[in-house]
């Protein structure tokens, strides 16, 4: 799939990102013209917008999530799986997760058929997506025109080529195609929309920084207009330092995937860059790892290390990226020394896609709208959602109502 996510090819998606961001902007303006003020669950708007994007960019398919209509059932299905969130997992949940490695695989596979949530919701979504996936495959057709097949590098085209391959080792049947599409859709839209949700929440709490971002964006808009342009280019978006730093800081403080397990392929010894002291007082400078041992890599833990990020690690402070002390600089991850997209050969293949998408949305929405805390005072917490082990916002005391980020939106002055 690498050609579909190359830096050169991703540039072609920018007009799509800007079109969907503009569509969301127009909908908010329509709501504001009617009511004068918009108190809404921001996470739902952004989830629908990014779902429309992944549908078009990956599969040339319109989910019609922002507009609703007959195809919006898929959007509702994705929203449902984030109704089952937990701020603190119970003892039974912790025990169950810890025992996974010791449950025979045939028995473990039966768990997905348990008739209780969140398993029921994820099963319903999977069944719904199978219908959509098969429809997409039918619309793409089994034999795309040669000239289109050779020129196209979108994800669906690559999957179709694999499906038509004569090599049995690389051939994908329709069920495998649908499974790949389901995974790409889930990973490709909700992580981005949730990061944007946390970012706008932080902007609502930091109006001074929000004003600085808006000033920077509007100054860029004036320069683009002066040169006779209409839309921002990739280079324009990359020049928005305050916006990029806000993205970096949100990825640091609010990673949607807080960590990943990895299995050691051989015995090894891992040196520690920062020694730790055990409960017995022993200074530990390295950790022995045995072949086959599962190592949980904590992205959230690394991204809150004072030794790397400073003493204010629990504070949202985008300006930290303006002057990172040389002694604290690290070289990990795919972007900005962050682990939010993981690292290595199994890192997130769509990290550039997500960044450009976020840049386009922030430029459009911050230029036109003011984000403030909701009229009703609430406390937001991060909680794990369903069975996908990703972080989403919930209102404290109302986790049973699912993911929610209430914000007040008004036209920016």
UniProtKB/TrEMBL annotation:
One of its GO terms (molecular function) is iron ion binding. Heme binds at residue 348. Keywords: Heme, Iron, Metal-binding, Monooxygenase, Oxidoreductase. Pfam families: p450 (PF00067). Its cofactor is heme. Pathway: Secondary metabolite biosynthesis. InterPro entries: Cyt_P450, Cyt_P450_E_grp-I, Cyt_P450_sf, Cytochrome_P450_monoxygenase. This is C2H2-type domain-containing protein. It comes from Ganoderma boninense.
